[in-house]
Amino acid sequence: MKNITKTIGAILLCGTAACVALTGCQEKANDYRPDKPVPKIEGYNSAAEVAAPNLVSYWPFNSTVTDSVGNLTGTATKTTFDAGVKGQGFKGDAAGFIIYGSPGATIPAMKNFTLSFWVNAQKPGKDDPARGIFSLNNNKDFWGNLDVYLDGYRSLDTMNIKVHINNDAVNWKGQFTNALIANPWGKWTHITATYNDTTSVFNVYANGEAVAVSSAGNSTVIGPKLHGDDPAKGDVPYGPLKFVNASAMVMGSWQFQTTPPQTTSASAQTWAQGFAGGLDNFRIYGKSLSAKEVKALYLLEKAGR
């Protein structure tokens, strides 16, 4: 009888413990129920919230080359779509490009800017051509108003990303900046370039972190102040941008490397080619994003939000 009583007691005790355990599991499950809000990142729920009023153009590259914000439409040559950071992304070719026959009214009028995108590039050979990523054209000059490209003339262990800016309002019109990013090859890297017309400060970020930039008249530093003239003549800021002769944009190449060229001042160059790699979530803002905004954008897009 005692053994039967002990057995019944043990069963009841185990049942109680199982019930407590199940209740505890249910409480933990409730902590992660689908209807609970996802924690914010740097104060934002999604990448779409970051500087939303200032977002001018956005290319998610999900089976289309159309700008989903500014509705700019392009014509693609020898480009396709492949797996991106989220969904599909742009897949370029050395002889490929997308031409946007009109850049709209907002982009050519920008006084400052932010360019933000993901890039997936393969390591170049020592003497490989420079690879064009983006150009806002200047149809009467060799260089565009705004050019982004990968140069191959540095260490093969680093990505040498260059941004050329034209400001027709100053003597030092064309500014060539470059930043080196370590070990980026064969994987997605988030790149952001910002220019502030009030401070004349230019920044490049890789995966949300500011990197050192080389520019004319400056040592290689994070956030150099661009000069509008020779520093020996005094402190002349680069100031508000003035783009000129902007009639088209190119994605995945250079303004002179397309067919036909988007400038009357140059044709295809042997040292240059299109970008045979991946691009995704390409954004243009009509303001210089803050470091916090850049970090948030990177983290949110990395999280697929």
UniProtKB/TrEMBL annotation:
- Sorted UniProt keywords: Signal
- State whether keyword RNA-binding applies: no
**UniProt KW Signal keyword:** yes
Any one GO MF term held by the record is: hydrolase activity, hydrolyzing O-glycosyl compounds
GO term, biological process aspect, one: carbohydrate metabolic process
Q: Which PROSITE patterns match?
A: PROKAR_LIPOPROTEIN (PS51257)
Record SUPFAM superfamilies: Concanavalin A-like lectins/glucanases
Signal peptide: which range, if any?
1-21
Q: Which domain of life is it from?
A: Bacteria
Q: What is this protein called?
A: LamG domain-containing protein
Native species of this protein? Mucilaginibacter terrenus
